[in-house]
Amino acid sequence: MSPSGSLIAILPCNDLDASERFYNRLGFVRPDSQKPAPGEPDTYRMLSNSKGGYLHLTDAVEGWLTPGRNPFGLYLYLESVDAAAREFQQSPEDKPWGMYEFAMSDPDETLVRVGWPTRLRAGNQ
């Protein structure tokens, strides 16, 4: 797939290590080839999954992210909603807007919804 036309979120984070670990659990990883040498700054991280999803993490400017007032949100379309829900001890449900999903917060209280269209779920055809 060509990256032309792709839109990738750049998410500010107060603790890049904690955020990277959280998104690793959703299948987003950073290749070793993109990690800096020991002692070099590591303030921008480009994560991807094996399904064409990308997420960039950057150090938040002081004061950007206030606990309980984070304005950011992400939606991950993921066919394996149930597996992701188990990983995070969540309970997905069918929503009136036609999605089977669950919601949670990342370490900086960014809203993260994980879902898949109800009509496309196995057994719903």
UniProtKB/TrEMBL annotation:
Q: Which SUPFAM superfamilies match?
A: Glyoxalase/Bleomycin resistance protein/Dihydroxybiphenyl dioxygenase
Protein name stated in the entry: Glyoxalase
What is the protein's species of origin?
Bradyrhizobium lablabi
